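Structure tokens please, single chain.
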Amino acid sequence: MNTPLSWIKAYVPELECTEQEYMDAMTMSGTKVEGYEKFDADLDKIIVGEIKKIEKHPDADKLVVCQVAIDEEGTTTQIVTGAPNVKEGQKVPVVLDGGRVAGGHDGKKTPGGIKIKKGKLRGVESNGMMCSIEELGSSRDFYPDAAEDGIYILSDNPEYKDAAVGSDAITLLGLRDSNFEYEVTSNRVDCFGVIGIAREAAATFRKPFHPPVIKEVGNEEKTEDYISVEIEATDLCYRYVARVVKNIKIAPSPEWMQRRLAASGIRPINNIVDITNYVMEEYGQPMHAYDWQTIAGKKIVVKRAKDGEKFQTLDGQERDLDESVLMICDGEKSVGVAGIMGGENSKITDDVQTMLFEAACFDGTNIRLSGKKIGMRTDAQAKFEKGLDPETTMEAMNRACQLIEELGAGEVIGGCVDVYPNKREPLSVPYDVDKINALLGIDVSEEQMCEYWSMVDLAPDKEKKVVQIPTWRQDVLRLADLAEEVARFYGYDKIPTTLPSGEATQGGVSYQTGICQIARNVVEQFGFSEGMTYSFESPKVFDKLLIPQDSKLREAVEISNPLGVDYSIMRTTPLNGMLTSLATNFNHRNKDVRLYELANVYLPKSLPLEELPEEKMMLTLGMYGEGDFFDLKGCVEVILDKLGIRIPVSYKPEERPYLHPGRQADIILMSGETVGYLGEIHPEVADNYDLGTKTYVALLDVAVLADKADFDIKYKGVAKFPAVTRDISLVMKKTVLAGQVEEVIRKSGGKLLENYHLFDIYEGDNVGKDEKSLAYSIRFRAKDRTLEDKDITVVMDKILSNLETLGVSLRQS
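Here you go.
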């Protein structure tokens, strides 16, 4: 919403402040000001001048030389101009040497303005410039009497013809003003009108508020003799007020009205249209005028449209309607879409004689939905859909009729037709001073609170301890709302900072979030950087990842209103986002990249959806460049170790189509539960993502990590007895995995086994072509004694015996 400060001062005449002070104070008191524009920001040294003499330029056919008086003593200065509309005796705005104008004659503003200096035009001295309205930073929307091509003639306007020569032209033209833009929240319907903003300004600056004095006007006739009103859809129309004006005189509205409308972004049209727009901006109450002669049966019926009905609105477009759209109808036909736009069949024309004035209150939700349905958006609709106060309707109607008579736009018929099925009553909200002070953390007396409430027309009753809330304050419903009124006028900046009171004031993160933080710390120490990708994906990613048609991963949740096919399903695997991010880095020639992401996948329990899908948090690691499969495996094992998950884990080969055959494995915990997998990306998948290098990924299920994490660390004393180490070299088929061998060692070693590690792998002439040799160092230790050879021999024999079941034997050479 935009409002010139001069309009606010019309109702708060004692308001004195700078634009920045106004903006800061209003924002702090709850009426947020987005910014402002000063009309005179780039104007300087512009006075009223009078053209005393005009002569032709000696060397230019289109230029004239003017002698212009610049003060009451008759001092003149010479100005050369090419304006075609100058005449002797005219009073004009003149910018003197060193002054500034806002822009050029083409109406385009120049930041900082244009500085005017004396000089010569075709050899003739010129000491300033006479200004067009565009050069003053305004337009013909604000000053309709301005010449379309030429300077602005002050003396042609009755308001300015007696202006003193040498006086400030900027002040004379009302350009010592600023236009403010407000961000009004939808619950403050009263602030969608200038009167509401002015009331807030008066309270903020502790100045008297003087709203316009409204008096009911009208002749001796009765409106009900001209029109009747019936509301069929009482659930969508809360009140309908109608009045009639005859002997209409269409003419331009006065300049003060035109300027206020133009400053609010509304183009002035004529006195009748401008009055309806003016009242809409002043009270926030839209109004509409119909040609009374076109109303069949002299009857208005407010009812729902018929399914399939077509209606031509004022903009000439034919609209398709259904029964959800509320219509204004006469005795035979529809004449307007309620709250949005009137119809072509009842519009006001220049030869209108009698006019029907409408002010109504409609259901805001229905107006918003109807506007979307028929594809329209109007200023009136924007007001109605916020949910207006039906009590304002009559006051706005009386204000409009008063303006009609004051401007001589017509003769108002006496009385009105007011259909108001369910009158809205003011609300009484009880207050408790102690509770309000406790809530806000301040100490304000009851007298001061009541003063704050009274400043914005909330009426406190100290005896009953209640506040009467006017119907236009739809945001005040309970004690907390009254406390907010106290807080904003007491000053949010004056409220001290305190901790909330209560037994539990210490916050914390959830257990799973703590697990994620530990994992995050580990992977970042390994050089991984966090990435974020979209949860929405394209169904095409399954083909890029070579996922089979019958895979459960293809059972994805579809978005009902997607942005497009590329964002039409919820992801069931985080691989696509990770590979896309890695590919982006690779194509930007980043050599070594390590990324991780903590993000959800969405797994439906059944399709079509009958309940919310399962959301599983996954830790995804992706890397290329320096490092390989075993670096990634080491990072995973450090994560498990930091979470207290017992190492070692086992790795089981698994066939996943998007991973390289033979270079992938599921990660199996000692409990037998699969926590995730890791491996190298399949070359074909890498090609699909334009990844021209070996790429490795790992996925860990955060829920499993959280379930298996164990932070119960127990101290073990330093071993008192020595350890015994045995090194063995084993030979086996290449198909036997090191993990299988280590599992046998672990299970067969018993309580004496302390640890083991693989220190050599050999393939060559000393073993068969399809064989390999693995060498392990195994360490034993007893807690209560020094081990003897016979103790070790028993355990080693058991290990070797069990390894034979895998086809593993001791290497002989």
